[in-house]
Amino acid sequence: MLRIFCDRGGDGAEIIYSLRNDDTFSSKIAKELEVSGQNVRKYYQRRLPSNPAKDYYYILRDTPNNETVIVEYGFADSKGDDVNQLKNNWENLAEAVTKAIVEYAGGVYQAPSGSNYYTVKSGDSLWSISKKYGITVDELKEANNLSSNLLSVGQNLLIPSKETNVTTDEYVVVKGDTLYGIANKFNTTVDNLKSINKLTTDALAIGQILKIPMNNSNTNIYKVEKGDTLYKIAQKYNITIDQLKNANNLNNNILSIGQELKIPINTSENVTYTIKKGDTLYSIAKEFGTTVSALTDLNNLSTTVLSIGQKLLLP
């Protein structure tokens, strides 16, 4: 029997098991919660002060014929990251406990559809699975730390993501930019930038729009580590959870240790605006909540004269 119990301002999961049982089940739940990205404070027993032979919690005392545990997934008044994890990562946490229950009871756990896992079936081989997902046997073995080709029915394998066709985003050149600086900023190379933009020199012009290769060998790739959540990773790279999920075709918040995620890069620090008939620097500044001097400085303008179709950077 499970119960969510969140209070007291802590951070992390806790599992309380009854005095009549050992810690095998609760430790398994703790392990799966850690794999899911939640830190575990402890798993323990608690005795009733007035009678230390009895469990403190009635839910444990009054279920004598069951192996009962209380799972505290996190704390609603946490000063850490529990609040966001419970809000954004609840599916992951629930699935972790489900996996622990199934395997502890001797069942065969099957990964949910749409996840990055594949559950081995009778007749499967590393070769057939790798062929199905368009990867190599070595890539499959490396992602799952396999030292042999042996598989067992019900085994869950992490399917490493495969790079797709190159896509691009745009970057507007600002004062002080160089090809080297831009390449370094977006984890690509000068040669890649020149090739994709058909540049024959290293010279750049303020306001010039460059295509930025997003899905090449130098794209930001992040490998999921113990304790990671979509929220933590998104926060680290200053993007949203939705951007992260869309870039990786994820339909849930479940992550696995060793999983590789594409990190979408916020390529444009400034928004561009195309001049229309009747526009002035004053009207544009007023519309976008900035000043004429900010516009002239950002675009290195020596005059207030504008031309239709001209592109301006907006702070």
Which features does this protein show?
single chain, 315 residues, alpha+beta, Membrane-bound Lytic Murein Transglycosylase D, Chain A, 4 domains, 12 helices, 13 strands, 16% strand, disordered N terminus
Q: How would you portray this structure in words?
A:
The protein has twelve helices and 13 strands. With 315 residues, the chain is α+β, with helices and mostly antiparallel strands. It has four domains: 13-104, no CATH class; 117-158, Membrane-bound Lytic Murein Transglycosylase D, Chain A (Roll), CATH 3.10.350.10; 168-262, Membrane-bound Lytic Murein Transglycosylase D, Chain A; 271-314, Membrane-bound Lytic Murein Transglycosylase D, Chain A (Roll). A three-stranded mixed beta sheet has the order 2-1-5, covered by helices on one side. Strands 3-4 form a two-stranded antiparallel sheet. Strands 6-7 form a two-stranded antiparallel ribbon.
Q: Order of strands across the biggest sheet?
A: 2-1-5
What's the end-to-end separation, in Å? 55 Å
CATH superfamily of the largest domain: LysM domain
- Secondary-structure element series: EHEEEHEHHEHHEEHHEEHHEEHHE
Task: Tell me which CATH architecture of the largest domain applies here.
Answer: Roll
Q: Estimate the mean pLDDT confidence.
A: 79
Task: Just give the CATH class of the largest domain.
Answer: Alpha Beta
Taken from the alpha-carbon principal axes, the silhouette is elongated
Give the helix/strand class. Answer: alpha+beta
Q: Radius of gyration in whole Å, from Cα?
A: 27 Å
Helix amount, in percent? 25-40%
What proportion strand? 15-25%
Residue stretches low in confidence (pLDDT < 50, at least 5 long) are 1-5, 215-219
Task: Note the total helix count.
Answer: 12
